[in-house]
Amino acid sequence: MSSAGIDAGRLERLTAAHREGFGAAPTLAARAPGRINLIGEHTDYNDGFVLPAAIDRDLALVASPRDGRRLRLRSLNAEGLADLDLDALRPAGAWHDYAAGVAAQLLAAGHRLGGLDLTLDGTVPLGAGLSSSAALEVAVARALVAANGLDLPDRDLALLCQRAEREFVGANVGIMDQFISVFGRRDHALFLDCRSLATEAVPLPLADAGLALAVCDSGVKHAHAGGEYNRRREECAEAVALLRPRLPRIANLRDVTPAELEEARAAGAFAGHDLAYRRARHVVTEDARVERTVAALRAGDWGTVGAALYASHASLRDDYEVSVPEIDALVMIARETPGVLGSRLMGGGFGGSTITLLRRDALPGFAAAVAAEYPRRTAGAAEATVYPVEIVDGARVATIG
Ligand code: GLA
Fold this sequence. Notes:
- By secondary structure, the chain is α+β, with helices and mostly antiparallel strands.
- The chain folds into 2 domains: 3-203 and 392-399, 2-Layer Sandwich (Ribosomal Protein S5, domain 2), CATH 3.30.230; 211-389, Alpha-Beta Plaits.
- Helices cover 40% and strands 21% of the residues.
- The chain is built from 11 helices and 13 strands.
- The strands form 3 sheets. The protein has a 6-stranded mixed sheet with strand order 5-4-6-3-1-13, with helices on both faces.
- Strand 4 and strand 5 (81-85) form a beta hairpin.
- Helix 2 crosses helix 3, helix 2 (97-108) crosses helix 4 (154-169) and helix 10 packs across helix 11.
- It starts with 7 loop residues before the first helix and ends with a strand.
- The structure holds alpha-D-galactopyranose.
- Alpha-D-galactopyranose binds at residues 41-42, 44-45, 131, 173-174, 176-177, 347-348.
């Protein structure tokens, strides 16, 4: 019997591991997906637009309440037991910080938590730009909310998970990843306004159109907390400060159009600050590309969608400077492969994955081209993997047993 969207075989494996590890039968199951982002990169923390979708790579868990004030976690993907004291949660520089951070935020928000044992199984590759961290946060949040009978609306749950990553883990992320993990909808992308948090589900009839979305993991790992990500945020703030004397109404880059940016530059707003100008140009043109992509999807104009992906990549590479040679090589290989409509770096950058829109029948050719060309163009430094993704529903929790 499947539960919370976890298939029967996996649920059985998790249940057996939980019994063995904790000597108790699990009473609840939760699942939260990773995500792709079709377009809208580094726009979320500028209050802009994004267009992500939840994928069939996820974090599944089972859990059982326990006496006392400990949160204990075992993962089928990692050795050992994380045994955390709910009254003394501190970051440890480990994978379970994302779970501990969620518990810490729930406590900080005044919720009462009892002890919980959790057994986890993740299929979102780590550091690949697919939001393994948000999947972990959201699944654990769902489990803690259900186990403790808390009343927490979905939107608040997503925001709380974001705070966990910002304040506990120290990565100053936007809201995209947590939001899509909660609100994803099968065969739809989510057009999210990161200021108002208003959403529109945009149909992605890939199969009907004979198309597919493929993730290509560069094998180069990134780390948000590493500093570059947070630095980009500061550079955007600097651009806003430079623009404000001319555009006093703006709160952040979301409020600036590409034309206004160019006018301000022509008037000297960025004299001596070319870097801030280029960062801003990425953000304001990317917001425009998201809107263009949504309109193209609604019109079934996949060619325009693909062109927007390539344009997004060029902007991330040249203006925002978050790409690496390996990712550029993957986009180039995609470009040279017949049947590919568009491709770009996805997620925070500095490694991770590309997302590629292509004809379904072009998948084997693309995988073969990557296998042949990637090692040659990157001197064999990293290994790339290509896999198609299905678009699935957001996080679920269910009682079991
Ligand atoms: C990471 C962050 C998101 C977003 C992307 C870049 O995935 O978690 O909030 O900023 O990078 O678009």
